[in-house]
Amino acid sequence: MNEFYKLILLFSLGCLLSASQCSTVGQHNGRERTEEVVESKPQEGFAEDTVLIHQYHKLASEYLFQDAEKSMFYSKHVLRLSQKHQWGKGKLLAYNLLSTYYLLDGSYDVLRELSNETITLSRQLNMPMFTAHGKRFLGESYSEYRQWDSSRINYEHAVQIFTRLKADSSLALSIENLGNCYREKSMYDVAVKLYDQAYEMFDKMNSDWGRATVLQSIGYMHVRLAHYAESEKYFQQSIALFRKIGNRYGEVNCLNDLSNTYYYQKKYDQSIEAGLRALAYSKIYHSTQQTNWALVTLSRSYKAKGMYDVALDYSQAVNFVRRMIHDETIKRQYTMYQLMHDNKLMDNEIQQKIINEQRIVQRFLIGFSCLAILFVIFLWFNNKKLRAKNAEIQSALIEGQTIERKRVAAELHDHLGGTLASLNWYLYGIDKKVLSEEEQKIYDSVHQMVGAAYKEVRSLSHNLMPAELEEHGLTMALHRLISKLNENKNIAFTFNLTGMNNRLNNKIEFELYSIVLELTNNIIKHSGATQASVDLTENVKTIVLVVSDNGTGMIEPNRQGVGLRNIKSRVESLHGKIQIQSEAQHGIRIEIEIPKVIIR
């Protein structure tokens, strides 16, 4: 209990320090306040909305490579609810989803803005995983605009963070992205090494998705080198893996690459076949970018075959889709910039509101903390008195039990033992010769019974409070007890001692002796054993007692007699633990572990 009150005291002091810090934040100038991360007070319904955020995030992630429109729909709900409560982690989850979507869709201007926003917020919230993702997306954006050095630096930063966080999947993806960067710079030897490293990592994780993306990147490198047969092989392998895991975006993207590869090889029929499949999948996925690429390849392939009417139709479709892409890009940019602007305005308003609320709460918090500290001090002094009183009661209880045991032992030895001894002498005074043969048998039986009863009473009086326990301690008392038990030739008892160089607390010695006495008595009466052992071991902080036999075990382990319940009560009074193992024909093993110093 003392530790509990100390924790309360520390908590109260923490509250007092927090209140002081709130005051300091309120005294900063405007520029300094914008650099602080002020957590907003959750609005009503935050718990329910948090559940929705995670549900929407799961759905958006599932649809990310299946249906772009549905993924965008759920991602915006994640962002809207997170902005409602100004929940930073929720915003980062939304930014990460939206960044992936805009990367797949080719909206690199929006991607750059989102990446910068992600990096800023994740650093404020000290969430390096999202910082690394933001760096990776920023590298993708720079790569699209052929700013290779900036792209490489951001990829390398992402690799460093993912390595430190041991995020192997994201690390492998970043290494692949870095390979793409070197590929675009025509540094193919470096790119191949990075691709091999990424593929090995994905292979170790057994990630079909990761293997498929690396194979597609290698295939595209061979397209740049005009190794079309090699690129075709890699694209086919990648498509098979994407189809295996049901990744619709990966399949349509790779089909477009394969269709172009066939076109460069003048395999126009195969190019058209792959292009038509890509066109069908792109419409299901709702990607205007992928649809445009499929239409362009189809138009060129039909034109190369001399089918100009069909080629013209696809060419017109390309122009229409390009206008759609332009309109959608402008619309997305406007929507995203509007969301970011609204988010910043809301952040500023909420931060100012929180600072004002903190100023109002500050005085109350300081007063409450002072009262809490005073209350804890009162409880601590009161607990100290109770602990002292409890120690006195415990000491008196042990002394009372010792006195009562001595009294009962003396009563048994002096009164009942004396009576049985006198009765035995009287029996010696009877002349057996005057008795008949039958009476002599009865006489001998009674004489033996009285003698046995006398020995039992002496043993019982000694075991209740042996002189060895009080004068020489637990070890000597147990040696004496085991020696007396071995006088009965039916069960061979052994006593094994480890440590125990010094005497223990009186209560511990008294209770342990009583426990051993009860357990050995149970073995003699109920076990049917031929061998039994008592092991007493002293560790640094605990005493371990193990009593075992080779008897029949407990017939019904769930049913425990009065003796075993008494033993458990004694163990609990010592703040110890007891384990009972019983198997038929293998005997019973009881292990008791208690602390050397009793916690009051």
From TrEMBL:
Transmembrane segments: 360-381
Superkingdom of source: Bacteria
EC number(s) per entry: 2.7.13.3
One GO MF term attached to the UniProt entry: ATP binding
InterPro entries in the cross-refs: HATPase_C_sf (IPR036890), HATPase_dom (IPR003594), His_kinase_dom (IPR005467), Sensor_HK_TwoCompSys (IPR050482), Sig_transdc_His_kin_sub3_dim/P (IPR011712), TPR-like_helical_dom_sf (IPR011990), TPR_rpt (IPR019734)
One annotated Gene Ontology cellular component of this protein: membrane
Keywords: ATP-binding, Kinase, Membrane, Nucleotide-binding, Phosphoprotein, Transferase, Transmembrane, Transmembrane helix, Two-component regulatory system
UniProt domain Histidine kinase: residue ranges: 407-598
Catalysed reactions, as listed in the record: ATP + protein L-histidine = ADP + protein N-phospho-L-histidine
The protein's name: histidine kinase
